[in-house]
Predict the 3D structure of the following.
Amino acid sequence: MKSSYRVIVIGGGVVGTSVLYHLTKKGWTDIALLERLELTSGSTWHAAGGMHTINGDPNVAKLQQYSINLYKEIEEISGQSVGLHMTEGLMLAATPARFEWLKSIHSKGRYMGMQTEMVSLNEAERLLPLIDKTQFVGAMYDPIQGHVDPNGTTYAFSGAARKAGAEVFTHTRVLDTRQRLDGSWEVITDKGNIIAEHVINCGGLWAREVGRMVGLELPVLAMEHQYLITEDMPEVIAFNKSAGKMILHAVDFDGEIYMRQERNGMLLGTYERHGVPWSPKNTPWDFGPTLLPDALDRITDNLEVGFRHFPAFQKVGIKQIVNGPFTFAPDGNPLVGPIKGLRNYWVACGVMAGFSQGGGVGLALSNWMVDGDPGLDVWAMDVARYGNWATRAYTRAKVVENYGRRFRVRFPNEELTAARPLRTVPMHQQWLQMGAVMGDNWALESPLWFGPPGVKDVFSFHRSTDFEHVRQECLAVRNGVGISDISGFAKYEITGSGAEKWLSYLLANKLPKTGRMMLAPMLNPKGKLIGDFTVAKAADEHFFIFGTGAAEKYHLRWFDQHMPKDGSVSVRALGLNLVGLSIAGPHARAVLAKLSDDDVSNTALRFMDFRMQMEIGMVQAMVGRISFTGDLGYELWVEPQFQVALFNALWDAGQEFGMRPFGSRALMSLAREKGFGTWAREFRPIYGPFEAGLGRFVALAKGDFIGCAAAREESAQGPKRQRVGFVVDADDADAIGDEAVWCNGAVVGWITSGGYCHSSDCSYATGYVDSAFLVDAASAKWEIEILGEMRSVRLQLTPLFDPQGIRMTA
Ligand SMILES: Cc1cc2nc3c(=O)[nH]c(=O)nc-3n(C[C@H](O)[C@H](O)[C@H](O)COP(=O)(O)OP(=O)(O)OC[C@H]3O[C@@H](n4cnc5c(N)ncnc54)[C@H](O)[C@@H]3O)c2cc1C
């Protein structure tokens, strides 16, 4: 072992070895992996090794596709077999809702180049003779599913990395990691100390403990997980003989069961509804490759369903039961990336499907470290999606919930209930009293819609109980005035002598003059969108930026990484120390005028004007004349102690104009008909600003800013794909996002979001389409696949509502 390396990878499970291999692929070879026991000694060794490409987030699904395609490569380079069996797979639905979900996954798969097929139950029975087809309503076939040998895979990754020059040290436990004054890391092990430029935490079951060495409490928790292996089954042997291949993988969602062939029998695993966390506080360092005691009683309900759905299991004995722990993040997706404030400290943990995701995680992280950018859209697994509010108790509640729901349908209008309420605004109780149905916006309670007592969301892929109420909220805004809570936005205060110069370098648009606001995308060096902000200039050397609440930590990390070293800029995230209300609609100005002595006429307080202080009723508020509704509107910001008083004043003043509260569903409906996009849907790091329709907010001529050269190129060459709108001939289900877009019978794009536009009275969707197909767009036949049905759509290239922007500006 040398005394220094460029990179130290902590942990030799499938994830650590994949990261090691990918770094060598990127040309970094002065790297070492440290493993406290033998490789695979965490959760890796007892995994079932199953893999597939299906994931709720299409970008994670793409990484899963990549992981599976990688296995042949590492086998060839290392000479170590990964024990690959590409058996193909069958996803089974026993309820109509699950069948609809399968159809939506199938549609998603089409634009991602997956070859899934919806198959009849007769075909399902032919593919998997173990099923009782009368128990199911539908099935989807997936040619890319199979399993690998967990040990072989881990050794193949490490072998391939070693061939390229990486070193692997087993029986070497990292005891501590300390950052030195020069920014490098001292890695203290039981075999001596090492200096490293970068440290990567791939500690798996011990990721929390490794994180705590640097004061980091990562939101991960291990759950016990059980599968059983049967004795030989005559049905399996007979199928192998007649078909000349193994039984395929199967997932029975309603039985909450997965299965695959293991020798001449079957391996059957299950995610029970009431899962049990393992070592919730500390993972013992003396835990080795041992199994946990079986607890079959916990999974008897699932097994009963399994035996009914797959009767052959009723006649066979159980040869072995495996109960082992593995880790989850609160939403079940990995935690990957750099940590704000810890230079060159990286994590790749919480990977619950190491054999589907390990390769993609290694690819993304190595790109990130070597190129400064993951090169892929990793928002869904970026460690920065969790703020400090993700405490241990929060994590526990969410992980247990997620585990128990692993195979359950999540409806588009379904809000999960665990760990709530956690973050609330001062108006919380009042909103509830007014009938708010609350949503969980990254642990912040925020009104989705307002209904009469007792009326709640009925979960569905179709329009539901909220439809008429959201409609009334939208109409109230368009015809009168509405009020809503906007506290969930991220707000940053930027001050200092270098603030203007720094912001100008960071953001793609020109900065506003004092008292004005501007929309400004933020790009990475590749010219891709990593933020969409509203910037307000309060005074010289004093700015406010408003952005997406969910991305607060993600953006703070970026700001931090690009902070000038001379101390001339300071950034403060205001979080819920600044809360807000918005009033919008044609009577919004009249409401404000009743409460303020200031001149709020259109000439005095113009569209995109910003006032640092305005007295509204008894309250001093910061005011921006802007509204995401696309209507005349104002955003009013106050300290939390004043939110209720501000609301009461606005509410009283608004009564004569029929003021109504509106929630985020109405807001999205209103924004949609203006063609506005949102972060993580329309705006993600895979899109350029011109593709996304934000080109007019990119000031190419202003001089240097991050991503300028790439944005110039995108502008000069024209976007390869473009975000467009569609009016959908929908039935009672609207597009929600990730549906395939068809043009003249071919898939040419995908939907990013959709829904009903109540004030325009039509169903609408927006998404990205290959630009080549927009040349003869008018004469083409456009369709969107919604829940397995092709719906004809009309291309809508201008906003449905007020395309000239008269309402916002007049
Ligand atoms: C019963 C069961 C079935 C499963 N089935 C599947 C499946 O079918 N498909 C699938 O994709 N996934 C499956 N999994 C999940 C899979 O096992 C995990 O996704 C995967 O193992 C995670 O790998 P990892 O490298 O992140 O963590 P780990 O395997 O836990 O590896 C972490 C490593 O880091 C080492 N380490 C930790 N701290 C230190 C330190 N301080 N110093 C040195 N070394 C350290 C540990 O010894 C360990 O070897 C299953 C898991 C279980 C329990």
Notes: The CA atoms of residues 473 and 662 lie 5 Å apart. DSSP finds 19 helices and 38 strands in the chain.
